[in-house]
Design goal:
- The chain has 21 helices and 2 strands.
- A hairpin with a 2-residue loop joins strand 1 and strand 2.
- About 65% of the residues lie in helices and about 0% in strands.
- Strands 1-2 form a two-stranded antiparallel sheet.
- The radius of gyration is 24 Å and the shape is elongated.
- It is mainly alpha-helical.
């Protein structure tokens, strides 16, 4: 089989499978979601089997739709309860209506949004919403989702099964919610996209393309919501702005060895300027409402970083004030830590150390606490305390520490060695905070995951 077939099929499946499943489900009914997925999966397998021998068709996307149509018809003919839907399937997935035709593409986009709203129904547990959205809308495999969330395959599979069962039992329709229901459903969807993006952005080292895909998919889906004539809202624009402003820094965030580059050391010439402009435009659009959400505040913080000429020229005073606003509406010790770091940049490291020490008890086992205190103490000229904090942080992160005897050989050695190794874990101004339990693992979804 030609090596070129695999990436082509993967690309097409990534960009077409979710919409194909959504289109089929809209016709078959939400209770037949698994059947729609099975048909689309079979189309992928057929492409892998046939294209390597017969060549890639002139219009691969239309070919996939054509195969999915035929397989759906075969399934319908075996099911007496679905047989009456055969004409609809044939009409909708006719190969005379390829996915890139504007009218049909618009219908597919609407189906995809309805599918997202169904997958993110409040009746489904949050972890199930994320897994089901990734599986049905984004065409991620169970293995990919499990690797992205550091979970077991069977755990993810069970979440998806339970979510589908709830859809059947609760008779959750794949339809646009009513005007009264839409705000709550949209809020649930935006939260899932927020967590999806943060989980993708939290991949610090190693090759894990799935997490990069998570960021891209979260941006794509957030855009679908923000730019939809019915589902759009100021908070949707704010979330999309946040994602775009953070994503713009991705090219400068990882070095050639796969290690994290802190914000202060990133090459800003590598930042995606058109994406920053896009993010700023959506931030402007988010100002049309009367309510300021956490997405607005976090996007504003991200904008301070994205538009600053350099790290030192960042408007730190504004950043501190924005964190004050975030703390007022979303109190969290991690947000308080982020504020303390911004305060250190605005008023000096001593002010930052004092602010961090005030919240130290609530972050006792939080690795970035010790490394942040070490960094700020070093900037304040207190090498002894810096060594103590870096050593403490190194001990908390066993994968990154060396033997205790090496770390404690002298204060100077602790500073030069431990500081170098723990530096990548120091939170240099996080932008997005949120804590979510995913797969039994506590994820600190803060954008110093993002601001690093």
């Amino acid at each position: 089989m030609s090596d070129a077939i695999y990436p082509l099929v993967d690309h097409l499946f990534r960009h077409s499978a979710g919409r194909m499943v959504a289109r089929l489900t809209s016709i078959l009914g939400s209770e037949h979601l698994s059947l729609a997925e099975e048909v689309v999966q079979d189309a992928l397998v057929s492409a892998l089997q046939q294209w390597s021998f017969r060549g890639v068709p002139d219009d691969p996307t239309a070919w996939l739709f054509h195969v999915a149509r035929n397989k759906a018809i075969d399934q319908l003919r075996r099911s007496a309860t679905l047989r009456e839907k055969e004409p609809q399937i044939v009409a909708v997935l006719s190969d005379t209506c390829p996915a890139d035709e504007s009218g049909f593409a618009h219908e597919l986009a609407d189906d995809e949004l309805r599918m997202m709203l169904m997958c993110c129904h409040p009746a489904i547990p949050e972890e199930g919403r994320i897994a089901l959205t990734l599986k049905t809308v984004c065409a991620f495999s169970v293995d990919e989702i499990a690797r992205a969330f550091l979970s077991r395959n069977d755990t993810i599979a069970q979440r998806i099964v339970r979510a589908k069962r709830l859809i059947r039992e609760e008779r959750i329709a794949m339809s646009m919610p009513s005007r009264d229901e839409l705000p709550a459903r949209r809020e649930s969807l935006l939260k899932v996209l927020y967590l999806m993006f943060n989980e993708g952005y939290s991949a610090h080292t190693g090759e894990d393309l799935v997490r990069s895909d998570l960021c891209a998919e979260a941006v794509r889906l957030a855009r679908a919501v923000a730019e939809h004539p019915v589902a759009s809202s100021p908070e949707a624009h704010a979330l999309l702005a946040l994602m775009l402003l953070q994503s713009a820094r991705l090219p400068a965030r990882i070095d050639s060895g796969g290690e994290l580059i802190v914000l202060a050391e990133q090459d800003r010439s590598k930042w995606d300027r058109p994406m920053i402009a896009d993010g700023m435009q959506h931030l402007d659009l988010s100002a049309s409402g009367d309510v300021v959400t956490r997405y607005h505040t976090e996007a504003a913080i991200a904008a301070c970083h994205a538009t600053a000429p350099s790290f030192d020229e960042t408007d730190w005073r504004s950043v501190v004030e924005l964190y004050d606003e975030l703390l007022a509406t979303n109190p969290s010790p991690v947000v308080a830590l982020n504020r303390a770091i911004a305060l250190a940049m605005a008023d000096g490291p001593a002010a930052g150390v004092a602010a961090v020490e005030e919240i130290a008890d609530s972050l006792h086992n939080y690795l970035p606490l010790a490394t942040t205190l070490g960094e700020l103490s070093l900037r304040a000229g207190d090498r002894v305390r810096a060594a103590e904090y870096f050593t403490r942080g190194s001990s908390c992160h066993r994968r990154r520490r060396r033997s205790a005897s090496c770390c404690a050989s002298s204060n100077s050695a602790a500073i030069t060695d431990t500081h170098a190794r723990m530096r990548a874990y120091t939170l240099i101004l996080p932008n997005v905070d949120g804590v979510a339990a995913q797969g039994g693992r506590l994820l600190c979804l803060s954008s110093s995951a993002l601001a690093r």
